[in-house]
Design goal:
Elements lengths: L1 H6 L5 H6 L6 E3 L13 E8 L19 E9 L6 E6 L4 E4 L2 E4 L5 E4 L2 E5 L11 H12 L5 E5 L1 H10 L3 E5 L3 E3 L4 E3 L2 E5 L2 H8 L9 H19 L7 H13 L1 E4 L5 H11 L7 E5 L2 E3 L7 E3 L1 H12 L27 E6 L6 H12 L4 E7 L8 E4 L4 H11 L6 E3 L10 E5 L22 E3 L9
Helix pairs in contact: 4-5, 4-7, 5-6
InterPro entries: LytR/CpsA/Psr_C, LytR/CpsA/Psr_CW_biosynth, LytR_CpsA_psr
Protein name: LytR family transcriptional regulator
Family: Belongs to the LytR/CpsA/Psr (LCP) family.
């Protein structure tokens, strides 16, 4: 689905997509964002191990309710100059929050959250839908998700067939009886069942872990993106085949649940160049209490998540193709009106911040609004379009990154305050909430344009 998203808006697609509306399955996750955003975009991509669907009975775990077998959080920068795709290990031990789900009869049911369980149970288990995985990823990373796409085993098989195969590379002979993949060392073009075997293989490579399987998936997806973005797929016939294959295997949120919305979404994201797409794996450590699972490597994960939240690229080339909009106009201190709540900072942070704003910055219209209703990983400033000058002033004082600024769609009344929610990343008023600009050491990553990646 990653490659499909980046190519879906190419020329001539519109009339094709009008014919494909009926292929698209939708799930109402209780959040419906606009298809196109003027800010960064976070797309959750889920590959489920459900055995439903033609030809899938021999795959996955027998009787599986359809867990989150493969999960990628794709972050596309605000200026669309780069994208980062974070693979989340399925065996990561994490917390799953309470999850409201919509039932077939239209009623809502809240699935209770769980502490210290496998990440992949965020989908399927206890009736959890993709919205539960959505909320779990938000809690884990501190990134707000815009949309999700979910696919089953057929997506790999049918898409790889539609593009006449995907080139992959093996550094050694591979013979995995579990996935039924047999490859000699060297380069190969795989499609259909063999393509699915490639992305499912882990026992015959590396240490035989899910982390090694993730590397296979990243190699495959990188090659698929390169092929989908090539000029070879500009013909209407080929584009139609790819579109049919993708949408037949696709389930999305209601925000992109029509052909028109999906086309708009793809048109927005296709601006990203291949050499600015980076795949990375969320850093983990072996779980000392269970060898079959892993735990978050907090020392590496925290700066990685902060880097993505701040909209910093993992790509080696840092020059942005986006146009600078210039410095924003700033309001004088006496006009900055804001309610401050504590959503994860140290105890007393809201009052400490208000005292600092009033006494050090002259913002007498700042108010302590107590504790936020929910904890946030990242500090957030919510403001209306007609409060942009106030937001610019406050962001400058607080050292807020662009990713912390959330502009609403409608203007606010004269006496309506902005809302500053202090997240877990908040240290002290006046201390910039900084994020690294270089990929943390030890974080596995690969550029999608790297043609020399081989399975080892």
């Amino acid at each position: 689905m990653v490659g499909f998203v980046l190519v879906v808006g190419c020329g001539g697609a519109y009339y094709l997509y009008q014919q494909l509306d009926g292929n698209i399955s939708k799930v109402d996750v209780g959040v419906e964002n606009d298809a196109v955003s003027d800010g960064p975009v976070n797309l959750l991509i889920i590959g489920t191990d459900a055995r439903s669907g033609k030809g899938n009975s021999g795959y996955g775990d027998s009787g599986s309710v359809g867990h989150a077998d493969t999960t990628i959080l794709m972050h596309i920068s605000k200026d669309r100059s780069n994208a980062t795709a974070l693979s989340i290990p399925r065996d990561l031990i994490t917390d799953i929050p309470n999850c409201p789900t919509k039932q077939k009869d239209g009623s809502k049911k809240v699935i209770p959250g769980e502490h210290g369980v496998r990440f992949n149970t965020s989908l399927g288990q206890e009736g959890r839908d993709p919205g539960c995985t959505w909320r779990t990823v938000e809690k884990l990373t501190g990134l707000k998700i815009n949309h999700f796409m979910m696919a089953d085993f057929n997506a790999v098989k049918e898409l790889s067939e539609a593009v006449d195969g995907v080139e992959v590379c093996a550094a050694k002979d591979i013979d995995d009886p579990k996935s039924h993949l047999k490859l000699k060392a060297g380069r190969h073009t795989v499609k259909g069942e063999q393509a699915l075997a490639f992305v499912r293989t882990r026992h015959a490579i590396g240490f035989g872990s899910d982390l090694d399987r993730i590397k296979m998936q990243q190699q495959f997806l990188s090659s698929l993106i390169r092929k989908l973005k090539s000029s070879a797929f500009s013909s209407p016939g080929k584009l139609y085949d790819v579109s049919q294959a993708a949408t037949r295997a696709l389930t999305v949120d209601t925000g992109i649940g029509t052909a028109g919305k999906l086309l708009d979404f793809g048109n927005d994201l296709k601006k990203v160049d291949i050499d600015k797409v980076t795949f990375a794996t969320v850093p983990v450590l072996d779980n000392p209490n269970d060898k079959a699972t892993v735990i978050l490597d907090q020392a590496k994960a925290d700066p990685l998540f902060a880097m993505v939240r701040a909209d910093h690229t993992l790509a080696k080339h840092k020059k942005s193709k986006g146009k600078s909009s210039g410095p924003a106009k700033k309001a004088p201190p006496e006009l900055v009106r804001v309610d401050v709540t504590n959503g994860g900072g140290p105890i007393g942070s809201a009052q400490e911040t208000v005292d600092w704003l009033q006494n050090n910055k002259g913002a007498k219209l700042s108010t302590n609004a107590g504790n936020a209703p929910a904890k946030l990983a990242a500090t957030r400033l919510e403001y209306a379009p007609n409060q942009a000058d106030q937001a610019a002033t406050l962001a400058d004082w607080m050292g807020l990154p662009k990713s912390a600024l959330k502009k609403s769609s409608q203007d606010a009344g004269d006496r309506v305050p902005m809302k500053l929610v202090l997240g877990k990343d908040f240290k002290a008023p006046g201390t910039p909430i900084e994020a690294p600009t270089e990929t943390p050491d030890g974080v596995q990553n690969v550029n999608a344009d790297d043609k020399n990646v081989c399975a080892k």
